[in-house]
Amino acid sequence: MTRRARAIGQEDERSDARERALILLYEAESKSMAPTDVAEAQVLVPDELTRLLVGGVEQHGREIDDLIAAHAKGWTLQRMPTIDRNVLRIGVFELMSRPEVPVAVIIDEAVELAKRFSTDDSGKFVNGVLSAIVVKVRGA
Q1: 3-138: which CATH architecture?
Q2: Got the DSSP string for the chain?
Q3: In the chain, where the domains are located
């Protein structure tokens, strides 16, 4: 159970899956490995949503990174903190490929991950970039 889930006294499996996906993507980038290879190397098999997020980010990586680069005004992907970059990748993948998940949920979850694991300004940054991308990906 994550710190956030413990703090509110309940477990949110989807939030936990997003957190696990972030950790796996971070590890993959740090080790210059394919994210799905990192996921497959885990002792415990990641849950279905974690695998979906990691695999989706890997499969659609170029398109996702292009969207992020086009909407992150004044920032290159390389200049972003690694956590922010991967939180954005998860958020963009969800906006593109999980229409059943409300936009507000996707953005809120991404902002919470960025606040918890990255810099003081990361929540605002992630919110701004995803809010700009959502118009392109999901329309008004």
Answers
A1: Orthogonal Bundle (1.10)
A2: --HHHHHHTS--HHHHHHHHHHHHHHHHHHHT--HHHHHHT-SSPPPHHHHHHHHHHHHTHHHHHHHHHHHSTT--TTTS-HHHHHHHHHHHHHHHH-TTS-HHHHHHHHHHHHHHHS-TTHHHHHHHHHHHHHHHHH--
A3: 3-138
Which pLDDT score is estimated for 140?
61
Are the CB atoms for 124 and 135 separated by under 8 Å? Answer: no
pTM of this prediction exceeds 0.85: yes
Instruction: State pLDDT tens for residues 87-109.
Output: 999 999 999 999 999 999 999 99
Around Cβ 30, how many Cβ atoms within 10 Å? 10
> What tens digit of pLDDT does each residue of 110-138 get?
999 999 999 989 999 999 999 999 999 98
CA–centroid distance for 81 within its chain:
13
Q: Which is nearest to 114 in space by CA: 93, 98, 128?
A: 128
Cα distance between residue 120 and residue 114, in whole Å: 9
